[in-house]
Amino acid sequence: KGLIKAKRDIGGRIVGGQTANAGQFPSAAAIYVSTADGTYFCGGALLNNQWVLTAAHCIYNGVVFQVLLGSTTLQGNDPNRVTLSTSNKVIHPDFNLETLEHDVGLIKFHLPIEFNDYIQPIYLPTVHVPDNMESTAIGWGQKDDATPGLTNQLNYVTVTTVSNMECQLSYANHIFDTMICVAGNYNEGTCRGDSGSPLMTTLNHHHWHIGISSFISTNGCESVDPSGYTRTFPYVGWIKNVTGIV
Questions:
Q1: SS3 track for the chain
Q2: For 156-187, what is each residue's pLDDT tens digit?
Q3: Confidence at residue 121, expressed as pLDDT on a 0 to 100 scale
Q4: What's the pLDDT band for 197 if we cut at 50, 70, 90?
Q5: Which of 103, 156, 166, 211 would be 162's cystine partner, CB 3.0–4.6 Å?
Q6: Average model confidence (pLDDT) for the chain?
Q7: With respect to CATH, is domain 133-233 assigned 2.40.10.10?
Q8: 143 pLDDT more than 50
Q9: What positions does the domain Peptidase S1 occupy (predicted)?
Q10: What CATH number does the domain located at 26-121+236-243 have?
Q11: Which one is catalytic: 92, 103, 207, 223?
């Protein structure tokens, strides 16, 4: 490909991941977004008993959101699964659909939910995320280029944050300071279907939200190009203002 830069594609999915166990990622949210034109899928993370954090591009055209919590599966019987429907959304005021800057969105439930072993909020970060840090990407997206569609099981993969300078080698000037890129071993990472899903790190037995899945390379999910996320930390103040989280 020489000097031709990878184009960006909205989306994400987990490539080369492992299947999550029940309760392993209790903040994981599966979101079916209904628009005037149909329904599509995104991921998200539970912030407190009434709010889910996802990507702005996921909910931009959304009219109704069906949110699944408490389960690692999308279908089949699971007594831990809670399904909620809402139309309440808040999109970051500076979100740009063309550049994907400020790709941060929030969904609000009509009533507060109850926490249990399978439904727990994720922690918001208190510091800037460094380069070369090991982190975890999760999602229900397809697992390879040959098999389109969602997987029924939540998957996770270990990835490493890369510097924005390194990420610009793939995406040129489309990478901004408020974005963070991750790369896995070989071609592991996120791909189509996992937009809005969290990038997280684990500290003191808690999951901390450090990124929102935003874009992937148009070279295909199994390319070695890094996956793009919106950094969570620069938006913590805005998120707290909107949600009332202390």
A1: CCCCCCCEEECCCCECCEECCCCCCCCEEEEEEEECCEEEEEEEEECCCCEEEECHHHHCCCCEEEEEECCCECCCCCCCCEEEEECEEEECCCCCCCCCCCCCEEEECCCCCCCECCECCCECCCCCCCCCCEEEEEECCCCECCECCCCCECEEEEEEEECHHHHHHHHHHHCCCCEEEEECCCCCECCCCCCCCEEEEEECCEEEEEEEEEEEECCCCCCCCCEEEEECHHHHHHHHHHHCCC
A2: 988 899 999 998 888 888 899 999 998 876 55
A3: 98
A4: very high
A5: 166
A6: 87
A7: yes
A8: yes
A9: 14-244
A10: 2.40.10.10
A11: 103
Is position 195 annotated as part of the catalytic site?
Answer: yes
What CA dihedral angle connects 244, 140, 13 and 115, to 10 degrees? 20
Beta bridge partners of 40: 33
Known catalytic residue at 214: no
Where are the domains positioned within the chain?
A: 26-121+236-243, 133-233
103 is catalytic: yes
Scan for tokens 């998957």, then name that residue: 155
Residue with tokens 């901390």: 208
Are both 26-121+236-243 and 133-233 of the same fold?
A: yes
Give 30 or 228, the one with higher predicted confidence.
30
Q: Which position among 27, 57, 217, 227 bears the catalytic label?
A: 57
At 181 the three-state DSSP class reads strand
CA distances from residue 115 to 72, 120, 205, 235, 241 in whole angstroms, order as listed? 16, 6, 17, 25, 22
